[in-house]
Amino acid sequence: MKNSRKINVAIIGGTGLESLLKDAEQIRIGTPYGLPPPMSIGEIDGIQVAFLPRHGVQHCVPPHEVNYQANICALHMLGVNRIITTNAVGAINSSFKPGDLVVPHDLVDFTKSRRSTFYDSAPVTHIDVTQVYCPETRLTLIEAMKKYDSHGHDRAVLVCTEGPRLETPAEIEVFRRLGCDIVGMTGAPEAFLARELEMCYAPICFVTNMAAGMQARLTASELVEVAKKKFPVLEQILRDAVKNLPRERRCVCASALKNARL
């Protein structure tokens, strides 16, 4: 695809956030890794933004079947260099509660079968993820979150599981002992794939439930209801963050491939 528009910023999220964009149009971009869902292209405060629905327009793709390679590659082909994502999570840390917003600082990958790299052949590439999330994008999200949600958390370790089932109480106990604060199914390998293409990436998570073993039972419908209630403030935060992202990148992401190849 030949891209004639300047689209530096993208949001990856769930169904329902498309309303963020003004005068949006849908496009599709084919990639060497497959066809991602239709993306919406529109404006936030005069800034061109792409929105990619991670689970498809009708939310029909389960987390373990999302084509993360195609999604990240398509945004890269569009010219995007900064990605903000939204993720529904369960709370492992008992100080986090349903309805809380969280900007995590680190990630543990417990997925099992996902394609997690663009570099399956030479040159052998080992990206550094000491700072797994873009520090500039994280700071912008934290500042926006603090404006609109006084209960937001600006540090947390996110553990990503395979899904689509929810976790067992024993698994949650293991994650708690490992120092994880929140659990979700979509944080990996997105963050790693973005870094491999030298794209900035940072998530804002919303807690929909206490994790298994910390409440009597979990149902998918209950998680959806909590998420819907949080959407209005989440939209405000996303708009504010997009508006205030630094236009020049001085972060580790922009040069991630330097000295990473053998």
Q: How many alpha or pi helices?
A: 5
- Report, as a whole number of angstroms, the end-to-end distance: 31 Å
List SSEs in N-to-C order.
EEEEHEEEHEHEHEH
Task: Give me the secondary-structure category.
Answer: alpha/beta
Uncertain spans, ≥5 residues at pLDDT below 50?
A: none
Helical residue percent band: 25-40%
Any idea what the CATH superfamily is called? Answer: Nucleoside phosphorylase domain
Residue share in β-strands:
15-25%
| CATH class bucket | Alpha Beta
Mean pLDDT: 92
* Principal-axis shape: globular
Fold-level CATH name: Rossmann fold
| Major beta-sheet overview | 10 strands, mixed
Instruction: Based on the coordinates given, report the CATH architecture.
Output: 3-Layer(aba) Sandwich
Radius of gyration: 17 Å
Question: What's the count of strands?
Answer: 10
Characterize the structure shown.
This protein has 262 residues and is an alpha/beta fold. The protein has a single domain (9-255), classed as Nucleoside phosphorylase domain (Rossmann fold). The protein is built from 5 helices and 10 strands, in the order ββββαβββαβαβαβα. Strands 1, 2, 3, 4, 5, 6, 7, 8, 9 and 10 form a 10-stranded mixed β-sheet that branches. The chain is globular, with a radius of gyration of 17 Å.
